[in-house]
Amino acid sequence: MPELPEVETIVRQLNKEIRGLKVKKVWFDWPKLFKGKTGPQKFKKIIKNKKILGIRREGKNILIDLNDGLTCLMHLKLTGRILVGDSEFVQKDSYVHFKLELSNKKILALSDLRKFAKIILEKTEEVKTLKEIKELGPNPLASNFTLEIFNEFLDRKKNGKIKEVLMNQNIISGIGNIYANEILWEAKVNPFKDVKALTFKERGEIYKAIKKILLKAVEYNGSTIADEMYKDTKGKPGKYGKMLRVYQREKEKCFRCNAEIKRIVQKGRSTFYCPQCQK
DNA sequence: AGGGGTACCTGCGGGC
DNA sequence: TGCCCGCAGGTACCCC
């Protein structure tokens, strides 16, 4: 579900809503949610009365830093959502599997229809050694993500097709299926093109499109396509869904050249592109 | 080392 | 109506 813009929206909201609060109660009904060294019962014990110092994003991971040198990592996978509100608000969601009651009586809930989401509790110092974090490629929104850095990481995957490489979290972190499709449409590059066949100009166009699309999507609080999918912490949909140019537009007309958008399954995921202007 | 297949889950919509 | 299939915004792990 959430890619960089959606996770970034959630993280910014959490910093406004829950920073400085303490955890008072823990509830869950899906123990498999907890991965890593800390099991469900230990998690419950440890996290009680911890203070929330701040919330960060690494790729699509949400990192909640707590006092006593602990960090809670959450990954929302396809259908995870984080909600913050009173108990009545949280109860409206049918797929809540985890709740933290906070010191202002508000509840932070994790909802997940497909139960793919995960939570890992780890020492803050050790977080960067987790495989989820350690291997991540650069943050495309960081100011030090230059064209040179982009090229350097692209060249680590000489054999891949560009769309598959863009979605590889170890090359660039945060891009998923929606934004990979959108970025390549914007850059007018064919998703099936081998990285090694890309011209300098194409690499530059892709680089510009990454920055442009992701920044715009963050500005619009991410994409909500189907109502049951991504929502922010207040249950509000993202506004970038209306701005999408190719994603889920199979057989519709390309906004640029009027040709028919095609959908092809690539590495198990739907690739949408315009066969006429993405050569 | 890194690629392919599959597993983890639930729900929805379409075709028969 | 009901059943089976394909599909959904993502990894993670096993096997070769």
Give keywords.
four-stranded antiparallel beta sheet, DNA-binding, globular, 8 helices, N-terminal domain of MutM-like DNA repair proteins, 27% helix, single chain, alpha+beta, 2 domains, 279 residues, Helicase, Ruva Protein, domain 3, 10 strands
Residue share in β-strands? 15-25%
- Look at the structure and name the CATH superfamily of the largest domain: MutM-like, N-terminal
Strand tally is 10
Strand order of the largest sheet: 1-6-7-5
Biggest sheet statistics: 4 strands, antiparallel
**Level-2 CATH architecture of the largest domain:** Alpha-Beta Barrel
Mean pLDDT over all positions? 96
User: Would you tell me which CATH topology of the largest domain applies?
Assistant: N-terminal domain of MutM-like DNA repair proteins
Helix share bin: 25-40%
Report the structural category. alpha+beta
The low-confidence runs, each spanning 5 or more residues with pLDDT under 50, are none
What is the rounded Rg? 20 Å
User: What's the N-to-C terminus distance?
Assistant: 28 Å
Structural domain tally: 2
